[in-house]
Amino acid sequence: MSTLSRRRAAAAAEELLGNLRVDRLPVDVLNIAKLIDVPVLEKPDVSAGVSGALVKVGNSFAIAYATHIGSQGFRRFSIGHELGHLHIPGHAAALLPAGEAMHESRAGYRSDNIYEREADEFSANLLMPKGLFGAAMRRAGDGLSAVLELADLCETSRLATAIRYVKLTSDAMAVVVSEGPTLRYAFLSDELKEFRDVGWPRRNSPLPVVPTAAFNRDSANVLQRRQAAFETPMSDWFGGAHSVPLTEEIVGLGRYGRTLTVLSTAYSADEYLAEREIEDSWKPRMGR
Questions:
Q1: Beta bridge pairs of residue 205
Q2: With contact defined as beta carbons under 8 Å apart, do 86 and 94 qualify?
Q3: What distance in Å separates the CA atoms of residue 109 and residue 121, rounded to the nearest whole number?
Q4: What is the pLDDT of residues 229-280, one digit of tens each?
Q5: What would the pLDDT profile of 84-143 be if each residue is shown by its tens digit?
Q6: What is the DSSP secondary structure assignment for residue 207, as one 8-state letter?
Q7: Measured between alpha carbons, how far is 86 from 172 in angstroms, rounded to an integer?
Q8: What is the largest CA-CA distance in the chain?
Q9: Which of 46, 72, 251, 288 is most exposed by smallest CB count within 10 Å?
Q10: Among 72, 64, 58, 24, which residue's Cα sits nearest to residue 44?
Q11: Number of helices and strands (H, E) in the chain?
């Protein structure tokens, strides 16, 4: 998704929060829907992978969310996603053209469709507003423990919270979502991207030989939401010659069937480069 799309979605969420004078966490997404006269309904009979739906009745709209998804945080994110379709300019008209009464969504970073990705971005900004969430980040600390604390505070899923955290942090971090032997997708912080020769993990590619891959081989680790932590060289995850140590923190996501890995390092790209330059300056040089 382009920077322009992200900004457009974020601006729409910020405008709605500002109009309703929302100034604390957790954001009450059901109350927001009530204040703008949009009914929110349970919808147990949705298709596989569908998280919710935007429904049009005459000139009015309603939101339905999937009840088969047990996570309250994911349900809240799904409602926020549908509010995004209502409030991001052009979404409702494109997704519900004349004669169409319902649009089903796959919230939670599952789709490559631009409307779905923008609605995900809207929901993240709605439930975890930059100002409020950023202040809470500074109090929460670092790594997976911070993500879990913020997820409890915001009443959001661990996955959505981790992705929001890595997008806003000034530290070198990454969030990886995997399933069995497969790396489904990853988000890298801006600081981590500053490291030279860091390769962006490809969607639906095999996991490298890292502790997360071993963790996933036991399905009970995922289903029972077990946690583990290791130290891993950056090169094992991202290739290149970086010997920077990463803290690899892993947690299973239960019935969702996937694993969340938070990768972090105390180094900044500039600090690592300066250290390497000093090391290189001390290496003996062979004459011709």
A1: 183
A2: no
A3: 9
A4: 999 999 999 987 767 899 999 999 998 899 999 999 988 877 766 655 554 5
A5: 999 999 999 999 987 788 998 876 666 778 999 999 999 999 999 999 999 999 999 899
A6: P
A7: 35
A8: 83
A9: 288
A10: 64
A11: 13, 10
Nearest 5 degrees, angle CA 30-CA 32-CA 38? Answer: 80
Q: Rounded to whole angstroms, how far apart are CA atoms 33 and 39?
A: 7
Q: Which two tokens stand for residue 78?
A: 């799904």
Structure tokens at 22: 């929302």
Give the other-Cβ count within 10 Å of 218's Cβ.
12
Residues 239, 270: Cα–Cα separation, whole Å: 19
| Bridge partner residues of 252 (DSSP) | 259
**Tokens at residue 239, please?**
């290739």
Distances (CA, A) of 92 to 116, 254, 268: 12, 33, 42
Helix, strand and coil percent figures for the chain, each rounded to 5: 45, 20, 35
Tokens of 87: 């409030």
Residues 6+ apart with CB under 8 A from 78: 51, 52, 65, 66, 69, 105, 107, 108, 123
Give every strand in the sheet of 227-233, ordered side by side.
Answer: 205-206, 182-188, 172-179, 259-265, 245-252, 227-233
Distance, in Å, from the CA atom of 130 to the CA atom of 284, rounded to the nearest integer, reads 49
Residue with tokens 């631009």: 114
pTM listed for this prediction:
0.89
Its sign, for the CA torsion 233, 225, 189, 201, is: positive
Q: Where are the beta strands (DSSP E) in the chain?
A: 40-43, 52-57, 60-66, 102-105, 172-179, 182-188, 205-206, 227-233, 245-252, 259-265
